[in-house]
Protein: Arginine decarboxylase
Organism: Toxoplasma gondii TgCatPRC2
Amino acid sequence: AVLRPEDVVLVDRDCHKSHHYGFVLAGSSPCYLDAYPLHRFSMYGGVPLDSIKRTLLAYRAVGRLEEVKLLVLTNCTFDGIVYNVRRVIEECLAIAPHLVFLFDEAWFSYAMFHPILKTRTAMHAANEIRRDLMEGRYHQLFEDLVETLGTDDLRAVDAETLAKTRLVPDPRRMRVRVYATHSIHKSLTALRQGSMILVNDDLFESHVHTAFKEAYYTHMSTSPNYQILATLDVGRSQMELEGYGLVERQIEAAFFIRRLLTRDLLVRKYFTVLSPRDMIPSAMRKHSREFLGEEALQCELTLQTLEQVWLSDDEFVLDPTRITLFTGLSGLDGETFKVKWLMDKYGVQINKTSRNSVLFMTNIGTTRSSCVFLKACIRSCAQELEMHRLLSSTRELEEVNDAVHGLVEECPDLPHFSAFHPVFAKPARVCEAARENAAAEEPTGAAANAKGGDKKGDGKREASVDGEDALASLVKDGDLRAAFYLAYDENNVRYLSLRSAKEAILKGKQLVATTFVIPYPPGFPVAVPGQVLTVALVDFLLKLDVKEIHGFDDKLGFRLFKPGVLTEKLRERQSAGALRGTSVEQRLPPETETVHVAVRPPTAGTPQLSEEKKDASSNGVVAASADDPDSKISEKSGNSTNATRNSDAASSLSSRRDDQEKRESET
């Protein structure tokens, strides 16, 4: 509802796949943001605020900031990484006051009903920002920022300074426009598919309501499931009446599981409960590092520790109800531990795994007895692993150690988003235009010499070019819709196995994906339609020990565009771009080319043009005077072909003119 065709949306690449399909339907152009990687655990965290700010500043530098309409982030992630939502909104609005925010809080619905957790939710942050705006607090904060920067127009401040400064939005220009999605069936009480969209938008009634209603009618059935709607109402009522108590017990259950697992020495020998220190880089949790210390985060979490961290200005925090168990030391990968041990042996079902970890989540229905049962199951697994080691031969121990080494030390690097193929990428021409504009503004020739800036000027120009190149690398949105539908025609695609694809890339060939490639786990697209494949991406899929990869056929391999198809499309695009830069005459085909004939003004006694001649003149041909032997015929382009064509036209006109004069004389 908030996007239009060709609008740019900044989006966390590891968001839910429904967002990606939404971009296809809306015709918007996604610019994918890379979350910080946790290579050792084969998972991603959140998108650093510095990366978001620099991307916005890059679009500002190339004159496309107004095209960026929406920022989509997952809060919290499946693994429990939670953003500082208020800080994200404030600093982004300082750069782009028109920006709309969408926070996917599918797994975070319960947070609104706890006084600590709700401080990092989208709706609470939006309400707090609006309250401070109405009370005038942002005016003083913005004045302090202006005094620090030396200007009240942030558009005049260079990108590097803004990227390193804690920004505050201009209260005269900002609008609070925040949306959140909650999957009630995942984290509260509702039947499957029961979800809600929360709206906190100053311009919703005036700008979005009609489009939102149309989008709702487009995607919803005219025969709704009233059972789902009823459970949504029941779930809302339940949390309104007793939400705080339920969420408090949910958090206490998570703390209880952590204590049970970390205090058991045998369990700790094979399994490790990951802490905020393991899952959040130290630079993004300064408060935790400086005031609590690393050891406090590594030890058991408490409600007091939780409050100190969550109410700080840390960029990321860890949801206490998410318990990630590292299985690498046991020699068991996440999928094997999930299926063959927990599910088959003990009936424990979990959703999320990675290459060397599994994720446990407590919810509002978790009981103390279920926590004790889970701990007993994991301890039983540890005992079985210990017994297997004691009874194993030397060769069997070597196999176990090799498995442990592979899971702990030989972790594949997580691939970043590469780029869209030039056929689908949009920013190249804009960046070139920005470069030309910057070059046009620089003094040249005598003016440059007069300033005495030959060497220094050259240095500045080189630095400017380097800066533009760095910014251009962040402007990487593409036409996802065009790539998606181009692949509908099977004549445009081919298939390659993973190893063949890697060999082709190493030989310098460019392979482009035709569909979303989504391995489970981690459950988000590692490749999207129109994206150029890289060796790192193929290596990641080769080393990923999973059986379920959407968009990838085990027998046929990668579904890719044929090279000839993209070459032809690129030629058409370049031709269209060249066509837009030409004059009307240059675009005309040869058979309809305009012919120009030079003529002197008529003098006294010269016969005036008849109606026939005027018609010829109106068609682009002008006749010379009949009595003037020096009349010259020329064509604007001056080439020989056109000159011949002009001569023929002039001769024809002269002949018709003689015939007309003869008829007039006879009359």
User: Anything to note?
Assistant: The chain has a mean pLDDT of 82.
